[in-house]
Structures are given as structure tokens and as C-alpha cells.
Design goal:
The chain has 88 residues and is mainly alpha-helical. It has five helices and two strands. Helix 3 links the parallel strand 1 and strand 2. Helix 4 packs across helix 5. The chain is globular, with a radius of gyration of 13 Å.
Length: 88
């Protein structure tokens, strides 16, 4: 299922807790931001805010200094089924 379809039908949640995570503030953040054409997340962490986006996806840029975290999200993007298999 494309991400835009998933966002339209269900709220995505961060797959793990993250120190400093913004999952409880995500709804308020999107209320204040509105539907921005280009979302940039400099401290990706668990991507709680991006995953809670109530609008269809547009240009989104995520970064994080933690290389293991960045590689996790790259793996999820490229082959989510393999990530699930290895995590199971």
C-alpha cells in the first residue's frame, strides 16, 4: 500500500519509543504547521511527527546523526518486508 493511502486510512505510529520523541505533541504540531509543501525533520528519531502527518505526503526530508537509526529508516524504505523478517 502506498504511504499516501496508508496515511489517508490510518494513523501511523512510531515503531519504537525514542528519547525526546514528539508523538504526544504531533497532533498539535500539525495543527500549527498545516499542510506544508516541504517538511524537514533535522532530528528524525522515531519519526513520530512525520508518521502522524494528517495530510497526503509531499516533499519530506529527514536527517539524524545516529547512523544506525538512519540505516534503519533506509532499510524500511527500501525493503520493509525484510526488516519485518529480521525483527521477528
Amino acid at each position: 500500500m502506498p504511504l499516501s493511502s496508508a496515511v489517508a486510512t490510518e494513523t501511523l505510529r512510531a515503531p519504537f519509543p525514542w528519547f525526546g520523541g514528539k508523538s504526544r505533541a504531533a497532533e498539535l504540531i500539525w495543527e500549527r504547521f498545516g499542510n506544508v509543501p516541504n517538511y524537514v525533520e533535522p532530528f528524525a528519531g522515531s519519526l513520530a511527527v512525520l508518521l502522524a502527518r494528517p495530510h497526503d505526503a509531499s516533499t519530506e526530508t529527514v536527517n539524524d546523526l545516529d547512523c544506525y537509526l538512519a540505516n534503519f529508516w533506509r532499510a524500511v524504505q527500501c525493503d520493509p518486508s525484510a526488516v519485518v523478517a529480521w525483527a521477528d
